[in-house]
Fold:
Amino acid sequence: MVAPETDYRCIIHIDADAFFASVEQRDNPDLKGKPVIIGFPHGRGVVSTCSYEARVYGVRSAMPAVQAYRLCPNGIFIKPRMERYKQVSDAMFDIFDRYSPVIEKLSIDEAFIDASGEDGVQIAAAIRRDVKHELGITVSAGVSYCKFVAKLASDSCKPDGLRRVSREEAQSFLDNLPVSRLPGIGPKTKSKLDTLGISTIGALRQMPETWFVRVFGKSAKRFQDMARGIDNEPVTPWREPKSVSEENTFEKDIDSTEALKGHLAILAQNVAFRLRKARLKCRTVGIKIRFHNFSTITREHTLSEPVSSDAEIFHEAKALLEAAAPEKPVRLLGVTAKGLVPETSRQAPLFEPPESPWDDISRSMDRLRNKYGKPVVLLGSCLRSRTEKEQDTG
Ligand code: TTP
Ligand code: MG
Structure:
């Protein structure tokens, strides 16, 4: 069982209700009580989220927006306003800061707050009150002795709820939940468990250790522990840095576009590596070019899906460089990643395929880089700058 020295732990999980849609309803009271769907019902658009009024019709996050339109033709479709949501999110995290110095940001609208040694229910209630009063939206809160039970507790009382699950209650609370509620169980693992007739966390808990090892491999202990309500993961204070960038001032100004691309590949690879190390992805890739006369330009491009692979970041940076068609010679080149989001913010489950095949390749390259302390696998384009260098110096 859980070590007694962790008994004082009290963890709050907070998650805003229908976040983007609630911000729209708050900014435009005409939308209150109506089915609001964030997304556009044409083309290949998907639903970001929708108000609880729209959920009654079966509309859900990540659903094709045309399908949402079929389910809820009287839904009010709204184009996302990310800047605005970010503003409200920042204000919400400022409220959390009042109550604890130990806050782990999980996504734009979700956090763990360590309230160990204090009355978690009272703190969660105060946070809910402040957010509602000052920001005009509701958040749900779970209070428990560990992170994942606190999260399941807040999920279970949405919207506008507060639920505490004590250590004593945890096992029966967990036993009745569908196994898919455990973090890390994606649709693939779920259907595998379905075929074995394991639909609840309680049923999972009954399975022998050897079975866990066979099904979950390296993660066997983590899943077996979770099924038993054991989770000693600390709340790790974390806020995303605003950007990650790398730049290089050349010893000699560079005249050749091919050589510039080679240098750009190295910079992109370093930025991507640092992102992955921090378990982040970026939505915006930027470049900076300083010319021999010190005039400087920057260019950036925002993507629909966040990325962190070497290849994807280089691809974007290269397109920006080509579009900028810089007058040469170039004195300095830089690559920046902005619009950072946690790697797992979109609930990428442990057993789901990575979002891009490049993610997998990057991970293998990182293992080598971590082992040898330097990049051992280079994008083909990096070699161009090397060859140039060798020619220069040779
Ligand atoms: P969630 O907290 O997962 O969802 P939510 O706040 O809309 O609703 P809930 O009450 O169930 O918590 O995500 C927070 C925001 O992130 C959400 O408002 C919109 C955005 N988002 C997407 O853009 N795409 C997605 O697939 C999901 C799940 C969320
Ligand atoms: Mg939410």
